[in-house]
Specification:
single chain; alpha/beta; TIM Barrel
């Protein structure tokens, strides 16, 4: 097995109702880290940030620690550039709550994408304007400055449908915000299209050469192409040359946190031994 720290998303598992039962299912699959999205995995427990507390965090941390599973990332995906400034403020406050309580869960990274200039997340070239980028910078800077006080890392995930949609824009973001509390969660599949998917290796290598020290985690998400759309599938069932990418990541970032995203529970055993 490569020298990488593999993780799974909690909501890629099924049929669990408590932190204990999810931790047990992950341990049975020999998964030792989780990216935990409370809104997806435990919506009855944490439907909003007002339900977060040290006790909730400790309960989750203890349940997963008992099974030797690390809560490596808390997911709090928000539209940080929502066009309604009142809603945007509520979302930013929600993310700040996750930053404030992350350490109680045992997590040091809180993850999000950069959002959409429209109220609903969908593709629009309006996301690619300088105005959208500067609005994003303002939101990211606010979150990072708050995270610095809490000794937490804000993990930003680029995506082709968002203001942070290219390698050039990632570099611009990192040039503008010099902080150890800002990290990139790199998901190669989020940056490719049906036209350039064969360049996935070269793209990841370029990112590693340009800003490897700012990458805090990877998402490895296999895909197929339907029409002009990229559609996620279980690892090993699509067009991703994941073995080559994992070799590359290991060479630049040994033991880096690598989340096997969109690979469902039933498929884990067949692929995990091949990593």
């Amino acid at each position: 097995m490569r020298k990488l720290m593999y993780a799974m998303r909690g909501h890629d598992f099924q049929d669990y109702t408590t932190p204990e039962s999810l931790a047990q299912k992950m341990a049975m699959k020999k998964i030792n880290a989780v990216q935990l999205a409370l809104a997806y995995s435990f919506s009855d427990i944490a439907t909003d940030d007002k339900k977060l507390s040290p006790g909730l965090g400790y309960t989750f941390q203890q349940a997963f620690q008992k099974e030797h599973v690390l809560i490596s990332i808390l997911s709090c995906y928000i539209n940080m550039i929502h066009p309604d400034k009142q809603i945007r403020e509520q979302l930013l406050q929600r993310f700040e709550s996750y930053i404030r309580y992350a350490s109680f869960f045992g997590a040091k990274i809180v993850a999000t994408e950069t959002g959409n200039v429209l109220p609903v997340i969908q593709y629009t070239e309006k996301n690619f304007t300088d105005e959208a980028f500067e609005t994003m910078i303002s939101s990211v800077l606010r979150l990072v400055q708050y995270a610095e006080k809490q000794n937490i890392c804000v993990g930003i995930e680029p995506g082709i449908n968002h203001p942070l949609h290219s390698i050039e824009k990632i570099v611009r973001l990192l040039d503008k915000i010099h902080s150890p509390s800002l990290g990139i969660i790199l998901d190669p599949t989020n940056l490719i299209t049906s036209d350039n998917y064969n360049q996935q290796y070269e793209m990841v290598k370029q990112c590693l050469e340009l800003f490897s020290e700012r990458i805090v985690a990877f998402h490895i998400k296999d895909f197929i192409i339907k029409g002009d759309k990229i559609v996620p599938v279980n690892l090993g069932q699509g067009l991703m040359d994941y073995k080559a990418l994992l070799d590359l990541i290991e060479a630049y970032k040994p033991y880096c946190l690598t989340v096997l995203e969109e690979t469902k529970e039933a498929h884990i055993s067949s692929i995990y031994s091949d990593l």
